[in-house]
Structure formats: structure tokens, C-alpha cells
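[Archive record]
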Amino acid sequence: MEPGRKESVDVDQISDIIRGLNMFPIPTSFFLTSGVGVHRERLTAFELALRDADIEQQNLVSVSSILPPRCEQIERENGVGTLRPGEITFCVMARTETDEPGRRIHSSIGLARPTDPAMYGYISEHHGYGMTRVESGDYAEDLAATMLASTLGIEFDPDAAWNERKRIYQTSSLIIGSTSLTAAAEGDSGGRWTCAVAAAVFRFTAPR
């Protein structure tokens, strides 16, 4: 730059830099989704399961189990409406697949929210073989609620049945609620790959 000459400021460029420094702010909302896919190719079965869940156009990045404070749950269709093809999208995902005819598979997401909106909650993923849809969902919900209960200092018997511990959590006034979403299927009778996915998808923008 010549002496005495002032360099012009590109406001748009500065704004881009600032946005880049804060590329991944805390999510403001999330939605739950699930899907099942069947194909002779394992990867394609996964793709079809993502299509069934309406998240196949995203570059998905799996993250772990914290539900941010004041992160609002929105309906699946509203959340899908905010997605842009090719966007890097953070989610907690459970995925199971099999090519064994008749083998039972399950993938579940469990969710537990504290009563205090300034406190974080938990999202759990559970996947595997043999469980029914209900059993898998209850297990995932149990995982999330128990992690939150231990964080909040709620006393409980870890060996007690889930229904008994759920009653303790609900009456503690510290946990506002828990839930789960499950994708379950049986292996394709022809031996093609069957894939089940469930996910909690984080969003940084408000629904349209």
C-alpha cells in the first residue's frame, strides 16, 4: 500500500470472516427422524434408510450425547424444511444393518430433558440385534434419563426396573420428560442388506 493511501474496507469480507470464526454455534433446535432401507449393496441400503428418514442429501457428522440448553424440539417436517443439500449437518445417529434373513435389528434414539431450561439434557443412541421396537426404545430412553438423573443428583437404584426408575425421575421435578424414537426391521428374506437408522438432527436456523 502506498504511503498516505487508505485501504478500502470490504464489509462483506469481514462479515464472512466473523461468521467463519463462529461457524458452529450452539444448536437452537433439533428433530427426530428414522428410516429403513433394503438393497443388495450394504452402502445403498444405508442410503435408502437415510432417504426414508429425509436426510440423505446431507453431509452427516455424528456427534455425542449432549442436548444443549434451550434447544427446542421441532417436528420432523419442519426440521427437514430447513435442510440444504450438501450442508454439513450434525446429528446423533444410531445405525444397524444385516444381510441375514429374518434377523431382527433395531436403532433407537433416546432423549431426556431437564426441567430447568438453562441446563443441558442427554441424547442416547442404541442399536443392535434381537430387541423389539418397544424394548429398544425403552432401553434408549432409559440410557438418556439415567445419564441426566445422575448429573442432576437424583438418587435411584440402578438395578431397579426401568418403569420404577422412570416414576422416580418424573416425580423428582428435575426432569421434564423423556422419550425415544426407533427404527426396527427384520432382515430381508432374500438376503439383501437391511439397514435401520434413527437420528436426532441439530439445526442452527429457525424453521421456515
The chain has one domain: 26-203. The longest helix spans residues 133-152. The CA atoms of residues 101 and 190 lie 7 Å apart.
